[in-house]
Amino acid sequence: ATLSPAGYATVDSYIDALTATARAQRKDRFFTYLTSIKEENAYYASGSSAGFGLRFALDQTGQRLFATESFEGAPALAAGIDRGAEILAIGTTSGNLRTVSAIIAAEGTAGLTTAFGPDTPGTARVFRVSDAAGTRDVTVAKADFTLQPVSSRYGAKIIDDSGQRVGYINLRTFISTAEPALKTAFANFRAQGVTKIIVDLRYNGGGLVATAEYLGDLLGGGRSTSEVFDYTTFRTEKASNNQTRFFAPQPESITPTRIAFIGSGGTASASELVINAFTPYLHGNSALIGTNTYGKPVGQIPLDKPACDDRLRVIAFATQNAARNGNYYDGLA
User: Fold this and answer.
1) Which residues contact 90 (CB under 8 A, 6 or more apart)?
2) Residue 2 binned pLDDT confidence (cut-offs 50, 70, 90)
3) Distance between CA atoms of 39 and 287, rounded to whole angstroms?
4) Are 311 and 35 in contact (CB under 8 A)?
5) What angle do helix axes 270-282 and 209-219 make, rounded to 10 degrees?
6) How many whole angstroms separate alpha carbon 119 and alpha carbon 98?
7) Final residue of a domain: which of 146, 177, 199?
8) Which of 177, 182, 152 is nearest to 77 (CA)?
């Protein structure tokens, strides 16, 4: 039966009702959502974002807040806040700073989001920061910036492990602008004879399937064009849209003997697609380290209403690896 929107005060509450059954089955954990066409297109095409340019995370106690990443070209790094810094307090002025623990005690972790303010350029906050340089108050205003999907500071490197060269790649998100940086990194890995690689996806919540497939190609130098990277499957009525994606090795591709994927509970979607794709080929030589991933073996299609700049991202397909494994709604382990 069709669910009437009458009686729902907001679009989000209506979407919640539409997806309640799938959510109860853990098959749509807020994967269906409404967003802006303009903003999403800008993000996936160029990494256009607005904010402080920090990625935050709580420690294991859930009481201490840290900057896990500080993005190049964004306000926070320019103000001297880098990854590893602890945020002790947040306020709109130095006179009304509230400690992180006090915010959490009063409002839960949602209170931190409120304390950060809206993601509109010009929104300013004072942070009391503790890092190797000491403790200080820093004022940062949100601004538009372009996210580097592979950090120019630490996103790609070769680690010398007792004479063995190990490639390391930290991919923040799967957007189209990641491809040139990935191409350059893997060309260097190939030139240096790298066959062992660490792929750091611990903070990567996903993105474009096409970019995930490109990363798979760069890691798939030993794969043939007849070997399956992934299957994309729609419901029976839309089966004509089903696709099989084969590996397409690139001139920069490497042939890894071992891959270590670093994951966390924030590793999802396109990140899990890449991790899952290599299990049938490398078996025990492809390992997930860290913690279990989020669990999103499905993808969305866009349903657009341009007059309102509205895009409904709705779950429409599932992904599987070459062994037809893809039922990891509770995460990869």
Assistant:
1) 97, 98, 100, 103, 112, 115, 116, 125, 126, 127, 128
2) confident
3) 35
4) yes
5) 30
6) 20
7) 146
8) 152
pLDDT, tens digit, 9 for 90 and up, residues 141-189: 999 999 999 999 999 999 999 999 999 999 999 999 999 999 999 999 9
Percent of the chain residues past pLDDT 90, beyond the cut:
99
- Domain CATH for 284: 3.90.226.10
Domain that holds residue 275: 156-320
pLDDT tens profile 3-17: 999 999 999 999 999
- Give per-residue pLDDT as tens, 268-278: 999 999 999 99
Give the tokens for residue 190.
Answer: 């190939």
Neighbour tally for 210: CB within 10 Å = 13
Residue type, 330: D
What pTM does this model have?
0.94
DSSP code string of 94-128: GGG-EEHHHHHHHH-THHHHHHH--SSTT-EEEEE
Q: 310 with 302: CB under 8 angstroms?
A: no
Confidence at residue 162, expressed as pLDDT on a 0 to 100 scale: 93
Domain count, the chain: 2
Structure tokens at 274: 């890449």
Residue with tokens 């915010």: 103
Among 272, 146, 291, which residue's Cα sits nearest to residue 212?
Answer: 272
Residues 62 and 200 in one domain: no
